[in-house]
């Protein structure tokens, strides 16, 4: 063992790093911050290192060419030893990294760690979040499949909405007039060189500030941050009730990071790599592109926003969102740190979580998308055809053939773009049905030009049978009153 | 010469060095920025767009809407399949055509034609268009993008080359529906 020691000393006489390393390792942190709540940042860093390593290994095989990228992914998945596992680790690592960065951010916010003097640490952290999301999106593009191709189309369409310079932005994003080879090359450069380079630099800065400014102490209700006194109080705290970072705090980081790595590997082994889905061939139009998990909420938002709000929202909301995040530590740099005394902070986090969670949940079954093959793939439930007249059955045929089913469910199958029609006859009278079918309304197109009078009669005859057994179909109350009056008047005139 | 002037001469030389380096960096930035911006072309003159053939007229029966594909005129050898662009061709009657971009006017997903109901439907956010490309329902703010076309002998030729978006409307040259941004 002596020779290891002397070798170490040989290096240290030349590098002179051991002092700085020892100082960083042994710096005192508040005992309260050696907590399981303080492990998410280091876990995110661990996954980032995993991403760098697996990314380099994938780059050995991956071909960043529009013509070959998809094939090289197939080779990785099927032909190379454990290529599928590396792709799966990289893909799941990406999901874990986004999740950990978000959890870390929420923890930091709720524990008031963004307040004085750690404002810049937070600002750098916001950029780290944006770059992590940038890595997730560019990574999805490199998985050059149908989702990636049409996802780029969506990105380009959003860029195209920018006033005046929209067209130029589209060409810059795509590296040319269409989604093609130069698009992939640009995103490859971003994903492999530009964003990781900036990430590494900013992670270094982030860590340096954590070391220089100290880890945030456990927030106590009533212990208020003041610019004049905070630094002194923190120094006292680390003196009186401090522990060296190594080993008192770091063991929890190490164990959690190991668990996260195991979890990534577990997901990779059990659930496998992401895609690639179909070939990036735009002429294959039988596809329903979906974004990756962390962008699903955006997909839902773009379906549910009123059309006239979409462009302003897409172009203005991200700017406001990032500005709010960046300004946060300057607007609330002092005061209470504890979440127990910050109800608005807690409610904001909960609201955001519920909104994003709801949108993500909605997007995973996308009720707004027509089910493109329901008209030919989902037969009508038998009970809707039993004991029906020939005209009504003819109407059922029209219902299927005219693709009504793509947007309207019957039984439980079919689209959810429009309302399910199992009980439509209790909501609309025959006259209202005819009007709705021919003229359309709300989100429904008008079918006047594509239905012959005979087809329309048959279709409405079928639709009026759609009511529960014990419930009468809707009828026009005024018409019966009018008819009654008519009958009465004709009875009274009878001699 | 006293010590102070000696120091200021050194610092003058250092500043000079910084200025020279800054100037050279600025000079080098010009080609770098030019290189990065090279995908930009004149929007008004439609520099990316050219006339390309979709095949003989006989492929497109009257009264029907059919999928056609063309090789994008602006292409790199490594573009692979991505340069094969589909579009919907509607032959109204005789030499009257409508050639629609495949991309939904909402966010660019590929719309599909359903001849039975006479609708184009988008699988992404549920946009729908009538047979003539006009908006039927859903989030799109306008009808489908249209390519300008002409008949060249027995060939149907369209002017194409750029991904149609609200900013680069495929149909501006032929006076197609103007984009309604925002």
Question: SSE layout and pairings?
Answer:
The complex is a heterodimer of chains A (495) and B (182).
Chain A: H1 2-15, H2 18-26, E1 28-30, H3 40-59, H4 69-78, H5 83-110, H6 119-142, H7 146-159, H8 166-174, H9 181-213, E2 224-225, H10 230-240, E3 242-244, H11 245-271, H12 296-304, H13 307-331, E4 335-336, H14 343-365, H15 374-377, H16 390-401, H17 424-427, H18 430-439, H19 453-463, H20 477-493
Helix pairs in contact in A: 3-5, 3-11, 4-5, 5-6, 5-11, 6-9, 6-13, 7-8, 12-14, 16-19, 18-19
Chain B: H1 3-36, E1 50-56, E2 65-71, E3 84-93, E4 96-101, E5 112-114, E6 119-121, E7 128-130, E8 135-137, E9 146-147, E10 149-152, E11 155-160
Antiparallel strand pairs in B: 1-11, 2-3, 3-4, 4-9, 5-6, 6-7, 7-8, 10-11
Keywords:
heterodimer, A: 495 residues, mainly alpha, Cytochrome Bc1 Complex, Chain C, Cytochrome Bc1 Complex, Chain D, domain 2, 2 domains, two-stranded antiparallel ribbon, 63% helix, B: 182 residues, alpha+beta, Rieske Iron-sulfur Protein, four-stranded antiparallel beta sheet, 1 helix, 19% helix
Terminus-to-terminus distance of chain B: 70 Å
Order of helices and strands of chain A: HHEHHHHHHHEHEHHHEHHHHHHH
Distance N terminus to C terminus of chain A? Answer: 127 Å
* CATH C-level class of the largest domain in chain A: Mainly Alpha
Largest sheet of chain B: 4 strands, antiparallel
Structural class of chain B: alpha+beta
Task: Describe, in short, the structure shown.
Chain A is mainly alpha-helical.
What does this structure look like?
The complex is a heterodimer of chains A (495) and B (182). Chain A has helices at 2-15, 18-26, 40-59, 69-78, 83-110, 119-142, 146-159, 166-174, 181-213, 230-240, 245-271, 296-304, 307-331, 343-365, 374-377, 390-401, 424-427, 430-439, 453-463, 477-493; strands at residues 28-30, 224-225, 242-244, 335-336. Chain A is mainly alpha-helical and 495 residues long. The model of chain A has no long low-confidence stretch (mean pLDDT 93). Helix content of chain A is 63%, strand content 2%. In chain A, the strands form 2 sheets. Chain A has a two-stranded antiparallel ribbon. A two-stranded antiparallel ribbon of chain A has the order 2-4. Chain A folds into 2 domains: 22-365, Cytochrome Bc1 Complex, Chain C, CATH 1.20.810; 374-487, Cytochrome Bc1 Complex, Chain D, domain 2 (Orthogonal Bundle), CATH 1.10.760. Chain A is elongated and about 120 Å long. With 182 residues, chain B is α+β, with helices and mostly antiparallel strands. Chain B folds into 2 domains: 1-40; 50-160, Rieske [2Fe-2S] iron-sulphur domain (Rieske Iron-sulfur Protein). Chain B contains 1 helix and 11 strands. Chain B has a 4-stranded antiparallel beta sheet, with no helix packed on it. The longest helix of chain B is centred in the first third of the chain and has 34 residues, at 3-36. The N and C termini of chain B lie far apart (70 Å). At the A-B interface, α7, α8, α9, α12 and α13 of A face β3 of B.
